[in-house]
Design a protein that fits this description.
By secondary structure, this protein is of the alpha/beta class. The protein has 2 domains: 230 residues, 3-Layer(aba) Sandwich (Rossmann fold); 100 residues, Rossmann fold (3-Layer(aba) Sandwich). It is 32% helix and 24% strand. It has 12 helices and 18 strands. Strands 6-5-7-8-10-9-16 form a 7-stranded mixed β-sheet, sandwiched between helices. Strands 13-15-14-17-18 form a 5-stranded mixed β-sheet, sandwiched between helices. It has a two-stranded parallel sheet with strand order 1-12. Helix 11 packs across helix 12. The chain is globular. The protein starts with a strand and ends with a strand. About 8% of the residues have low confidence. This is 13_t:CDS:1.
Amino acid sequence: MRKTNDSQVRYNQHTNPLARHHPLKGLCQTFVDQSFWNLGETKKMNMFQSINDAMSIALATDETAVIFGEDVAFGGVFRCTLGLSETFGKDRVFNTPLTEQGIVGFGIGMAAMGHTAIAEIQFADYIFPAFDQIVNEAAKYRYRSGGLFNVGGLTVRAPCSAVGHGGHYHSQSPEGYFAHTPGIKIVMPRSPIQAKGLLLASIRDQNPVLYFEPKILYRAAVEQVPVGDYELPLGKAEVLKPGKDVTVVGYGSQIYVLENAIQMAEKAISGLSCELIDLRTLLPWDVDTIAKSVDKTGRLIIAHEAPQTSGLAAEIATSIMERCFLRLEAPIQRVCGWE
């Protein structure tokens, strides 16, 4: 396994079908850590395949790792676990009843006993029956035992956000509900390379992690992904595009919307230079990287698909205002989902 540090190398739109065929068509460039080129062989993967590859590596390198959830044994509704039950056995990749509270509660029990528990909630919209298990049990297990016990081996995966035809029960972005909870980490990737490295880091992190996967990207985002074992750092944002006039912050599939907006703005306003940052980890989020950028640009726009009220953008705006008040040239702006 190899951990990487961020050093930007452009991986252009000609190898990313999302840039050419997706309704969010635009610049859509992904920036790849330069050290990836030292990881050897790569393979063309979309995002659900890279997530599958990450879980395959987790199972192969950790004999205590198990995967469970609704329909995961045959591959799941998005095929993220395809072939894993056949490869690693039905005692390590298995279906559960349709009970989100039970799935997470079972994962807490397994993690408490020393297992690496990788739970799947079929859609993030249905994670709410497990809310108590996540915020009152998983998040507080270490604290309430005075550090004697923990469930750091628990990772909860959940497809999230809009896909264009999911309606009100298959389109939500619930990350804000959990970001108020000390004791858990929250991650949302933007691309296949990011998805694999961040998922492996989440599975191996010694804290319970909620790993939200923008389902619109499962097949739309394609990259040459290293086939080896690597991790990307949790809690560290990535500057995708340097700029001098305004800082633009987002995460997940929203990054592609922001790239489109930046391309249009820079074309319309001569000399405009926008800095684009992907948070990647939503809790704990990387305040230092954002503050450093805003100290330079003097302006900040935060965008997410979730609703505006009490969303992550509000927390980011407040924290940056406190740190960068004397450097701000304009009020901080939020661009969020309709309420």
